[in-house]
TrEMBL record:
GO terms for cellular component: membrane. Gene3D superfamilies: Transferase(Phosphotransferase) domain 1. The keyword Translocase does not apply. The keyword Electron transport does not apply. Keywords: Transferase. Coiled coil: none annotated. It comes from the Eukaryota. The lineage of its organism: Eukaryota, Viridiplantae, Streptophyta, Embryophyta, Tracheophyta. This is Protein kinase domain-containing protein. PROSITE patterns: PROTEIN_KINASE_DOM.
Length: 100
């Protein structure tokens, strides 16, 4: 089971550091981890990440914004930190459930 978490860590490394623009998954949870026939873990459900990325860049491009728009931009800011935190939660889940 620990191998699956390592697979997910490699996938997040690719999304965060090796793509032309970093991709933040934004919703990493057990149901968004898929396994193939060899039990290799894969990250799925990147639809929300693309949506948030597009909204963030659109909102950030607006230079003449009101206070409410500034708050919206702050809410839409995403970073890789949330994905790393979620990976830690997955690791704790594996440790607690499977004892690895």
């Amino acid at each position: 089971m620990l191998d699956i978490v390592i697979d997910i860590a490699h996938a997040l490394d690719y999304l965060h550091n090796r793509c032309e623009q970093p991709i933040v998954q934004c919703d990493l949870k057990p149901s968004n981890v898929l396994l193939d026939s060899e039990l290799t873990g894969h990250v799925s459900d990147l639809g929300l990440a693309r949506f948030l990325s597009k909204l963030t860049s659109t909102a950030s491009a607006n230079q003449s914004s009101s206070g409410a728009e500034d708050q919206l931009v702050m809410l839409l800011q995403v970073s890789t930190n949330g994905d790393v935190y979620s990976l830690g939660i997955l690791l704790l889940l594996v440790r607690n459930v499977y004892g690895e």
